[in-house]
């Protein structure tokens, strides 16, 4: 049935009962984690439905099973397999949620600390998420917290926040097992020596750092993600390559690795020479963009109208090879961080007179990138 996802069908076959009924209030399903948006209305599952399911019925486990079957069926010819799971995205409960002790789980100096010198968008987000702990606001009266951002979690105490982090880390365990099963399937298929494997993530999560949850931030916790690449004919011995790269370079690099032409219209560039060791990343700037949103690309209500209002504004950010980060917005307080001496981004140096020339140089890099990519977002005068 192409009107519903195979995962939904799988869960129904395992005896799980859909918790979204098309005949319910409003008669619309819309987008949900375990179903698809389609013209035909069918029962499906909400993003909270997986809480109490066993490990084998979690999305990562199901996708591992499907991926392993695909590998076995296609091992005798070239293939590209893309596997993307929802874990460890909220909601954070799952089968391993008692794996880590919240009281001993490491946290950094930015944990539950509001970003007082940062942009207004970061400050209003921190004010919203921290008010339940600092101001005694009843989180059970907040639909966004209870239904989406922290469903079944307690963010009214520090231990509650630590427990949420522990649940997040535990859900990473589901992804860990998925990756392990896929790697084993590649080995069992006898194609390990000529199969490229890439592991990365779409975004991070603030997890209480700077007093926030979720993404939508230029802070490292949200915008910096893991990237591991296994190229059997290049990966011995294993090594860490110094510098920063962007997701936009992945497709050109992979095309180059498999001997395909890289189309001229792609904005990214191949980093094959870096993987081979003939070049490095000492001159590689990384650009990060938040495009805001408008009526044509709406966002859901994020708990406070001030948050939605400020997130309408676009941002353009650069991380330079010397590990400085500049985040520019034409309608908000801009941010500058020295990631070498301030890796947790506690001190915004944008208004420091001693950094004016650095800001102008970094802003010029963003402007050059805009010209190269056809980006027309306005930048503030620096």
UniProtKB/TrEMBL annotation:
SUPFAM superfamilies: Alkaline phosphatase-like
Keyword Transmembrane found: no
GO molecular function (one): metal ion binding
Keyword set, alphabetical order: Hydrolase, Metal-binding
GO cellular component: cytoplasm
Residue ranges of domain N-sulphoglucosamine sulphohydrolase C-terminal in the record: 208-367
InterPro entries assigned to the protein according to its UniProt record, in alphabetical order: Alkaline_phosphatase_core_sf, SGSH_C
PANTHER family per UniProt: IDURONATE 2-SULFATASE (PTHR45953:SF1)
Protein name: N-sulphoglucosamine sulphohydrolase C-terminal domain-containing protein
């Amino acid at each position: 049935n192409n009107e519903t996802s195979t995962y939904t069908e799988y869960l129904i076959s395992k005896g799980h009962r859909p918790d979204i009924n098309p005949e319910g209030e409003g008669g619309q399903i819309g987008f949900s984690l375990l179903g698809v948006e389609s013209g035909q209305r069918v029962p499906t599952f909400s993003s909270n439905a997986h809480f109490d399911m066993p490990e084998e019925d979690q999305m990562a486990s199901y996708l591992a099973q499907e991926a392993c079957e695909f590998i076995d069926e296609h091992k005798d010819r070239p293939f590209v397999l893309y596997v993307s799971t929802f874990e460890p995205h909220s909601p954070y409960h799952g089968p391993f949620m008692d794996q880590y002790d919240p009281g001993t789980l490491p946290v950094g100096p930015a944990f539950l600390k509001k970003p007082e010198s940062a942009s207004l968008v970061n400050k209003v987000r921190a004010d919203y998420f921290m008010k339940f702990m600092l101001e005694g606001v009843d989180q059970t009266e907040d639909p966004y917290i209870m239904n989406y951002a922290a469903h079944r979690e307690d963010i009214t105490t520090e231990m509650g926040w630590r427990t949420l982090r522990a649940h997040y880390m535990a859900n990473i365990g589901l992804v860990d097992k998925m990756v392990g099963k896929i790697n084993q399937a590649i080995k069992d298929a006898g194609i390990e020596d000529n199969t490229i494997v890439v592991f990365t993530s779409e975004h991070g999560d603030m997890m209480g750092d700077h007093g926030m949850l979720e993404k939508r931030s230029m802070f490292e916790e949200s915008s910096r993600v893991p990237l591991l690449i296994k190229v059997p004919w290049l990966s011995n011995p294993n090594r860490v390559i110094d510098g920063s790269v962007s997701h936009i370079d992945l497709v050109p690099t992979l095309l180059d690795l498999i001997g395909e032409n890289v189309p001229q219209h792609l904005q990214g560039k191949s980093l094959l020479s870096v993987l081979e060791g003939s070049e490095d990343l000492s001159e590689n700037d990384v650009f990060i963009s938040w495009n805001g949103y408008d009526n044509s690309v709406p966002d859901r209500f994020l708990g406070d109208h001030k948050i939605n209002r400020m997130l309408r504004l676009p941002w353009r950010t650069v991380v330079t090879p010397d590990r400085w980060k500049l985040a520019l917005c034409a309608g908000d307080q801009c941010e500058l961080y020295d990631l070498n001496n301030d890796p947790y981004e506690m001190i915004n140096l944008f208004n420091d007179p001693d950094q004016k020339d650095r800001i102008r140089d970094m802003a010029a890099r963003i402007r050059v990138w805009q010209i190269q990519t056809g980006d027309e977002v306005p930048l503030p005068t620096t």
